[in-house]
Amino acid sequence: MKEKIAHHIVVYTDGGSRGNPGPAAIGVVITDAQGNHIKSYGETIGTKTNNEAEYQAVIFALKKIKALAGKEKTREMSVEVRADSELLVRQLNHEYKIESETVVPLFIQIWNLTLDYKSVSFRHVPRDKNREADRMVNRALDNQSAKLF
């Protein structure tokens, strides 16, 4: 049975690497429109650049929301992705070109995932508004032996 999940979701995403590239992780915090916590995730993703990790976090979030809500409900959902990476948000909002060849397939994957939803928007937030997702990244990197928590 799929989780009861709201029609409008706000998801905070973060990705980071220690070294660039280096050991990397993602952090995802899913809330409803009122800010009520639904789920949080932190996961290591191998050796990546910071930008690749930021993209991987968005991909993980969109896939996880679909898994939690189910395919049918996802088509009725609006998702607002909030991230503290201005580069990521501007690229996803078609304001900046993507120069990195490794990021292009990640961009395409996100584009394809957005088609599963009623709408997906991307919004830049200051780092202090993204603390929980950042905490999940650091927790995953600090506990590399743990895959999910």
Model description:
The chain has about 150 residues and is α/β, with parallel strands linked by helices. It has one domain: Ribonuclease H-like superfamily/Ribonuclease H (Nucleotidyltransferase, domain 5). It has five helices and five strands, in the order βββααβααβα. It has helices at about 50-70, 70-75, 85-90, 105-115, 130-140, and strands at about 10-15, 20-30, 35-50, 80-85, 120-125. Strands 3-2-1-4-5 form a five-stranded mixed beta sheet. Strand 1 (about 10-15) and strand 2 form a beta hairpin. Helix 1 runs parallel beside helix 4 (about 105-115). The protein is globular and about 40 Å long. The relative contact order is 0.23. The model is unreliable at about 145-149 (pLDDT under 50).
What can be said about this structure in brief?
This protein has five helices and five strands; from the N terminus they run βββααβααβα. With 149 residues, the protein is α/β, with parallel strands linked by helices.
Query: In this structure, how is the largest beta sheet organized?
Result: 5 strands, mixed
Coarse shape: globular
CATH architecture: 2-Layer Sandwich
The CATH class designation is Alpha Beta
How many domains? Answer: 1
Number of strands: 5
- Mean pLDDT across residues: 93
Quaternary organization: single chain
CATH fold descriptor = Nucleotidyltransferase, domain 5
Fraction of residues in H or I helices: 25-40%
How far apart are the first and last residues' alpha carbons, in Å?
Answer: 21 Å
Run of helices and strands: EEEHHEHHEH
Class computed from helices, strands and strand pairing:
alpha/beta
Number of helices: 5
Gyration radius over CA: 14 Å
The fourth-level CATH homologous superfamily is Ribonuclease H-like superfamily/Ribonuclease H
Low-pLDDT ranges? 145-149
- Beta-strand percentage range: 25-35%
Pfam families: RVT_3
Domain RNase H type-1: 5-142
GO molecular function: nucleic acid binding; RNA-DNA hybrid ribonuclease activity
InterPro entries: RNase_H-like (IPR053151), RNaseH-like_sf (IPR012337), RNaseH_domain (IPR002156), RNaseH_sf (IPR036397)
